[in-house]
Description:
Mean pLDDT: 96
Amino acid sequence: MGFMKKRRWHCLPGQQPTEFDRKIMNIESKGHLVPTRDLIKTPEQIEGIRRAGVVNTGVLDEVAKHIHAGMSTLEIDDICMDYCKRHNATPACLNYEGFPKSVCTSINEVVCHGIPKATDILQEGDIINVDFTTILDGYYADASRMFIIGQTTPEKEQLVRVAKECLEIGMEVAKPWSFVGDIGAAIEKHCKRYNYGVVRDLCGHGVGLKFHEEPDVAHYGKKGTGMLLVPGMVFTIEPMINMGTWRVFIDSDDPFGWEVISEDELPSAQWEHTLLMTEHGVEILTY
């Protein structure tokens, strides 16, 4: 006896399908993965996420004002915590699955999830990713930026630039009624021009009502695959680009089991925004 596959997309109880519903159900009937209705944010929810995005941008702007050679990454954590307290917000990273600080500070070969420490002192020529997620009134916004400390090498400068281009390219191809795989395919194509590795073990994600929601947003892949993107969805694009191999490992010296390092210990760079899918493309909520 056969069983019909359960649909992910359901019309609202007691209501006839709208044109929006029919379009999604038609795409789902062709075998594509579609969002569930709870992934489509309401106008009220979008405004809440947008407000969280304003605070999140403020946190990273505050870091940009003060970051310099000779400071510790623990001082960066203090800056973020202080800004949050002054704006009645909460850092989502703090105590999340055992993460001990409010922000991720990932220097050079640390791909992501670097833990702030008093002993990690920024040096001239370092590149560092500062990744922060804000909770404001129950809504989440998530973004990261790269910072170059003083003067660095041309190779590191190029890596930081290309990683930002990857985010921009991903945002450009993220159109309503396209697929998550379109984002990854475009990013991977750009990286291949430089023989860079696109990290595969970590990805972007839905965000807004929780820290991590569907869909997973891989930064490599094939066009026309992955979840359908429709207006009202909120998600991050956050490509992690390695100067060498895409492979990574967890630092065995990290007692918390969080810090991810490039396998060949060459530098890595990442940029991230929280994005709202609209009828015309993505709107950045973390400027």
